[in-house]
Amino acid sequence: MFHSAKYEGTQSEKYDLVKKQLKALIEDEPNQIANLSNASALLNQFLDRINWVGFYLMDGNELVLGPFQGLPACVRIPIGRGVCGTAVQKRKTLRVADVNTFPGHIACDSASQSEIVIPIIKNDSVIGVLDIDSPEKNRFDETDEIHLKEFVEILETYL
């Protein structure tokens, strides 16, 4: 599931290494933009079969594009619209096997076929989401979901 040949082992072992690297990158840095930038770069380096990874951050009652890796993206997403806005509204992770079947999907990149979105919650408020897109249908499985939620929990600790 990961690009680099130097990361061997099970999918879970590889994710454990990525989570350790995230913590090392952000634990001494207070700047949120720097930390989210490095987090998106880290995931982009290690996850394979993805075409976009990044963050949308709450600004008033909508999500606004934050640090990311990939093609230019939609800048503003209303709460309740698309996968990202729905994840915020429901305050839960959404793993969508085929975005074309998701009601109200916002197609920022027509190549995207599947998506996972994890809300970032701090002090009981959603402050943003981690959004990852893939050009393959059904790219993200339960293991991805478990570990990406743990990745976000690390971010929540330091943001």
From TrEMBL:
A molecular function (GO) held by this record is:
L-methionine-(R)-S-oxide reductase activity
> Entry's PROSITE patterns?
UPF0067 (PS01320)
**Residue intervals of the GAF domain:** 52-155
Please provide, in alphabetical order, the Gene Ontology terms of the cellular component aspect for this entry. Answer: cytosol
Top-level taxon of origin = Bacteria
Q: What residue ranges are annotated as transmembrane?
A: none
Give the family this protein belongs to, as stated in its UniProt record.
Answer: Belongs to the free Met sulfoxide reductase family.
Kindly provide the name given to this protein in its UniProt entry.
GAF domain-containing protein
